[in-house]
Each structure stands twice: as structure tokens, then as C-alpha cells.
């Protein structure tokens, strides 16, 4: 009897110890969860000092003009199919179109315009204070092809429907290109004189690698000994309803992008007549290789790049228990990454992806090409905000490639962001069918650049909140 009582006592003590350990563990998770909340809320105060000189307040005429100008840009089919397969007359037409719609930019004595590599554009806008390091905004004028029969409206008609403007390039990347120049046009018209010099680079072959446009623009700037304080390119968006468990919009600034590698695998075997085939044909060997590639994805690396900071910073905005999960990725990242790898769109955030893109067969040498999009390294930059009453900006990873990679020698402060609102249904429109932008959102984009140009004149930029990323 005594023995049984003793056993119960020991079991109870063990249970109590286990419960205490569990409670301590749970408290640690909760403390971390709500520490992130506090850090997240500090962000806004950093930007109180940012004040724009000229208010945007676009007039009705200006709103009509900015929309007409974007329509004009969308109607020029600047399609790029390959380094040597592009429509040069459209690229030239686009070059002739710009001075027509931005006459103030092209006639201002503060602005120097150069054509680079025949079709790309470099604008140098001279600031009054030489001691301030210049910055650069970049965009591209070329677009990917569009099959008219798949679209609801002709892809180069710039048709307006239900508050949206449809057209190839509406999202990638003419809204950004036109938005930047439109903002500068409006500012110069209002008598704006920048303090800090800046550059605007418009590449003509981003969709096929940017090796003529962006690369040559960067080379020109390098040859002039230019170093930039920061560079802003396309690459990420304001995500609306895309992040699971997040009801608010999230403005994501990509500070890193995935790289890529193309690898060819080829098999050469002794030829023979198909009536007397070898035991293993070259097609069979290659097919086995493809199957192996698909069955053996690269390891999960979720939580080791900038995506970790992104999810941790979003955690205060998420519902319980998702906020606890995201604030404690040190513990939960294996579970989160297993869930994310189920969808192709989120799988690309988890690992280096592999895609077999070409298969040559039926000739003497059989070959396949494999495209790898590797995961990038660590977070490299800090985020900035345009307006404390608007979105809180988060750092993220761009899963596509941009022209930014050609500018790496000019600055380490690389940001990829357009304040374009992207919903789940829009994800397939980029490089897909029925690409469109809402007219209201385009006005906001022009306003964003209008503010950004002025805010960049501040002699000291708001302090970084990188430390709160590293909690
Ligand atoms: Zn693009």
C-alpha cells in the first residue's frame, strides 16, 4: 500500500515538472510573440520627420493626363522575345513617345537625357547640393509577348473596363516607368528643384536579361565614378489577401532576389537501327534523369533568408495562433516550410526550385536543360516608409529576376518595390493574360514617386529599424 502511494507521488511530481517545463516553454513563445508586436509598432515613429514639400493634390486635368499617358505607353507593343528578337520600330516609337508626353522633363535644364544602347534611356536630374549622394530609380520599357486570342481585350489596346486599364505591361513594368516620369513631370511643373541629384534608368531588354540596356546604363554610370545612396526597382508589391491569416495589406520591399542557373544534361550513345535498339536508349537515360530531378527537390531552406524577417515582422498583424508560429520560426519553420512547399507559388520561397524547361530528342545527341532558381543569402538592407499613415513596409524576397542585378557595383542599398496592389487573382496576370492595373492604384503609384522624389531630398534618411528585425 505504502509502495503504491509512493509511486503515485513520484508520477505526480514528474507530471508537475513536465507541466511546469511546458508552461515555461509556452510563456517563452508568447513573450517572443508579443515582443515582436512591440517592435513592429515602433516602425511608424521613425518616419515622422518625412514631409513632402509639394502636395500631390492632382487636379482633374492632371488625372486625365496621367491616365492618357499610361494608355499611350501601353499601346506601343514593345515586345521582347529574345536578345535579337525584338521589334526595334516599337522601341524607337517608345523613345519618340516619351518627349511628347513629358515635355517639361525633356526641356528642363535640370535634366539631361541620353539614349543608351540605341533604345534605353538614362535621365540625370541635377540636384542643388553636390554633397548629397545621388540615388536612382529604374524601370523597363519592354514587355513579354501576349497572345491576343487568350485575352478579353486586345493586349495593346489599353482598354478601360470597370475602373481597370488592361494592357500588356500595365503591371510589368510600364506603370512604374510612366509613374516615375509622370511624377517628375508634375514636380518640375510645380517648380520643384531637387537638392539631391538622381538618375532614372529605363532599360529596353529586361525581359531577356537586360544585357544591353541596364548593363550598359550601369557601365556608363560606373565610368563616371558614380556611387548611389540607394536604388529602387520593380520586384515586389503591396500584397492584399495573399498572405494567409493577414487581413491587412502588406507592402513588401524585396531586398534580395533569387538567382538562376541553367544546366544542360546530355547523353551520347552509339547509334544503331531502331529495330535493334540497345538495352538502354539515350531517351530512356535522360527520362530517368528528369524523373530523378523531379523526385529529389533541393533541400528546404525556409527561415534562412530575408523571408524569415518578413514573416517575423508580419506576426503582430496575424491572428493567434499564427502570430505565435511566425514569431517563433526557430521552432516552427520545419512545419511552416512543409506547408508552404505544397503550393508552387510558396514552394519558391522555401527552396532552390528546379524546372526542366527544354528536352531535345530524336537526334543523335539528346539533351535537357534544367533551370535552377537558388535561394539567396541573407537580408542585406533596411526598409523605408513613405507615409506614416499608410502601409508598414516589410522586407522580402523577390522570386523573379530584375534589372537590379546589373547595378550591384553602384550601391548595396537595393530595393525592389512598386506600390501596386496585388491580389491573389492578379498573380497570374503578370506575364499572363488580362494584365491590368486599377486606375485609382495607378494614381497612387504616381503619387508615391511624387513623394519619394521629394523625401529623398532629406539630407539624412530616417534611421534604420534593422535592429528590430534581429530580435
Ligand atoms: Zn519587369
Commentary on this structure:
The chain contains 13 helices and 18 strands. By secondary structure, the chain is an alpha/beta fold. It is globular, with a radius of gyration of 26 Å. Strand 1 (80-82) and strand 2 form a beta hairpin. It has helices at residues 2-42, 60-74, 88-101, 103-107, 174-189, 213-223, 282-295, 306-314, 322-327, 329-340, 344-347, 439-455, 466-469, and strands spanning 80-82, 85-86, 111-116, 120-125, 135-140, 160-161, 164-166, 198-203, 231-233, 238-240, 250-257, 261-268, 353-360, 365-373, 393-398, 414-416, 421-423, 436-438. Helix 2 runs antiparallel to helix 5 and helix 5 crosses helix 12. A 6-stranded mixed β-sheet has the order 3-4-8-5-9-16, with helices on both faces. A 4-stranded mixed β-sheet has the order 15-11-10-17. Bound molecules: zinc ion. Zinc ion binds at residues 140, 172-173, 206, 234. One of its GO terms (molecular function) is aminoacylase activity. Pfam families: Peptidase_M20. Pathway: Amino-acid metabolism; Lipid metabolism; fatty acid metabolism. The chain crosses the membrane at residues 12-31.
Amino acid at each position: 500500500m505504502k509502495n503504491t502511494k509512493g509511486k503515485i507521488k513520484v508520477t505526480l511530481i514528474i507530471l508537475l515538472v513536465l507541466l511546469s517545463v511546458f508552461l515555461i516553454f509556452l510563456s517563452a513563445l508568447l513573450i517572443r510573440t508579443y515582443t515582436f508586436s512591440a517592435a513592429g509598432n515602433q516602425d511608424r515613429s521613425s518616419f515622422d520627420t518625412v514631409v513632402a514639400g509639394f502636395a500631390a493634390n492632382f487636379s482633374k486635368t492632371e488625372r486625365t493626363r496621367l491616365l492618357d499617358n499610361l494608355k499611350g505607353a501601353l499601346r506601343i507593343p514593345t515586345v521582347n522575345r529574345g536578345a535579337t528578337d525584338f521589334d526595334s520600330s516599337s522601341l524607337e516609337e517608345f523613345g519618340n513617345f516619351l518627349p511628347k508626353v513629358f515635355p517639361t522633363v525633356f526641356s528642363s535644364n535640370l535634366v539631361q537625357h541620353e539614349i543608351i544602347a540605341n533604345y534605353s534611356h538614362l535621365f540625370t536630374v541635377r540636384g542643388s547640393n553636390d554633397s548629397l549622394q545621388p540615388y536612382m530609380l529604374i524601370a523597363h520599357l519592354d514587355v513579354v509577348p501576349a497572345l491576343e486570342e487568350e485575352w478579353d481585350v486586345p493586349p495593346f489596346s489599353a482598354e478601360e473596363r470597370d475602373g481597370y486599364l488592361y494592357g500588356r505591361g500595365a503591371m510589368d513594368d510600364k506603370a512604374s516607368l510612366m509613374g516615375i516620369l509622370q511624377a517628375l513631370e508634375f514636380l518640375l511643373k510645380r517648380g520643384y528643384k531637387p537638392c539631391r541629384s538622381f538618375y532614372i534608368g529605363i532599360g529596353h531588354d529586361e525581359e531577356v536579361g537586360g544585357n544591353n540596356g541596364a548593363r550598359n546604363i550601369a557601365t556608363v554610370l560606373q565610368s563616371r565614378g558614380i556611387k548611389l545612396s540607394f536604388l529602387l526597382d520593380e520586384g515586389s508589391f503591396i500584397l492584399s489577401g495573399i498572405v494567409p491569416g493577414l487581413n491587412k495589406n502588406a507592402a513588401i520591399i524585396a531586398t534580395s532576389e533569387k538567382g538562376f542557373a541553367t544546366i544542360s544534361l546530355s547523353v551520347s550513345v552509339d547509334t544503331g537501327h531502331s529495330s535493334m535498339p540497345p538495352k538502354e536508349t539515350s531517351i530512356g537515360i535522360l527520362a530517368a534523369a528528369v524523373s530523378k530531378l523531379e523526385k529529389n527537390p533541393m533541400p528546404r531552406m525556409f527561415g534562412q533568408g530575408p523571408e524569415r524577417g518578413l514573416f517575423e515582422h508580419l506576426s503582430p498583424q496575424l491572428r493567434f495562433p499564427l502570430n505565435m508560429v511566425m514569431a517563433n520560426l526557430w521552432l516552427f519553420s520545419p512545419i511552416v516550410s512543409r506547408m508552404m512547399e505544397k503550393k508552387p507559388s510558396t514552394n519558391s520561397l522555401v527552396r532552390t526550385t528546379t524546372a526542366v524547361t527544354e528536352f531535345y530528342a530524336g537526334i543523335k545527341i539528346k539533351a535537357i536543360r534544367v533551370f535552377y532558381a537558388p535561394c539567396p543569402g541573407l537580408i542585406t538592407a533596411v526598409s523605408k516608409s513613405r507615409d506614416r499613415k499608410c502601409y508598414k513596409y516589410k522586407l522580402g524576397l523577390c522570386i523573379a529576376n530584375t534589372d537590379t542585378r546589373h547595378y550591384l557595383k553602384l550601391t548595396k542599398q537595393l530595393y525592389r518595390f512598386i506600390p501596386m496592389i496585388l491580389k491573389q487573382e492578379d498573380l497570374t496576370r503578370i506575364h499572363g493574360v488580362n494584365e491590368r492595373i486599377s486606375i485609382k492604384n495607378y494614381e497612387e503609384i504616381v503619387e508615391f514617386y511624387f513623394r519619394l522624389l521629394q523625401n529623398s531630398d532629406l539630407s539624412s534618411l530616417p534611421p534604420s529599424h534593422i535592429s528590430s528585425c534581429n530580435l
